[in-house]
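ok new one. same drill as before - structure tokens go in, u give me an amino acid for every spot. 99 of them this time. try not to just spam alanines like last time pls lmao
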């Protein structure tokens, strides 16, 4: 599984239909689960971003499809950040020492 952080900003359409937001994000959670992923955490934020989510996906391509699909609905602009756990980081550091 790959882990991503999604940083989301509501569009004008998303703000206009804000009362539907709980239905939209619950549907997105279910869609990710149906695709083999899962939501680890989801927060409503104050500041530059309106929502922040951490999720797992079966592949980078599946994560990309999910993020693009969310944006295509027109309620959000999505920025994704691939995350690495400490074991992955330490494995990368070991590769440096072999060089």
């Amino acid at each position: 599984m790959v882990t991503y952080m999604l940083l989301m900003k509501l569009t004008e359409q998303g703000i206009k239909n804000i009362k539907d937001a709980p239905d939209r994000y619950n549907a997105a959670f279910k869609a990710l689960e149906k695709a083999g992923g899962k939501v680890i955490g989801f927060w409503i934020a104050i500041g530059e971003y309106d929502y922040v989510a951490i999720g797992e996906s079966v592949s980078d391509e599946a994560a990309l499809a999910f993020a693009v699909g969310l944006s295509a609905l027109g309620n959000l602009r999505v920025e994704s950040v691939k995350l690495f756990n400490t074991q992955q980081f330490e494995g990368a550091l070991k590769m440096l020492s072999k060089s």
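The two ends are 28 Å apart (CA to CA). and btw The domain at 2-97 is CATH 3.30.70.60 (Alpha-Beta Plaits).
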